[in-house]
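Per-record layout

source: Dokdonella koreensis DS-123
name: Arginase
length: 307
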Amino acid sequence: MPQRFPPVALIGAPTDIGAGHRGASMGPEALRVAGLAQALRERGIDVVDRGNLSGPLNPWLPPVDGYRHLTEVTAWNRAVMTAVRAELGAGHLPVLLGGDHSLALGSITAVAGHCRERGRKLVVLWFDAHADFNTSTITPSGNVHGMPVACLCGYGPRELTELGGSSPAITPDRIRQIGIRSVDAGEKRLVRDAGLDIYDMRYIDEIGMRRTMEEALEGIDEDTHLHVSFDVDFLDPEIAPGVGTTIPGGPNYREAQLAMEMIADRRCLGSLDIVELNPAFDVRNRTAVLTVDLVESLFGKSTLMRD
């Protein structure tokens, strides 16, 4: 039987505060225009759109002590954390519509706290072209959207590592990264030392997406809260041009669909981020439409009826 989903709550976070390009702030509306809510309703899921959160404007300033817009990034993530935690407490499945990937700090901190309170196991699947494990001392840009995984694991400023009141929000063994193909020079050593579980594109090329996902999903069962953090630049830019940081050599359409379908088969999805969609770089909302298609598969859409 397919997973029976609780009501889905869409939460817009229209900001590019942590990014190096402007435009991800338009991502939530692009997903709405592409029909995300209606697509989920057609799957028999109750959907409520909470509209957009509010936060500080992007001042577009250079880094200070290795971070760009730390005060503003913190404010946005507090708003996200509060909103996601409220939806989880109400028994809903929160879907964060970003916005840049720094916002995952707020959403995953909220999910981690929720799971600790209820004694549930948390696993985060992080779909991305980038490892996002930079710190102020190794970042080439100071953009916080390149740092959320590090901050979640306790590497970073207290404003972000202790967003939920304690640090770390999660340990590296709780997160599995898929599709990685861009890791900054200083980041490589930190990723290795932290023991981060990464399925990079070479690994996917060598063994295929099916075996990769079987390994990434190992140990996930009915007692698991599965959080999917989906950065649209995970996809190859040939099929998904609407992102600010395109990295060639990503998964194709069918590989991405298979990954989403295999997650759906586990019936453990508890929360979702959709981030880094940048309509300023898109072509007639093509990337948003593709993203909605993939989210439908994540929520159980398949070609045939499967047990």
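summary: The chain has eleven helices and eight strands. The domain at 8-298 is CATH 3.40.800.10 (Arginase; Chain A).
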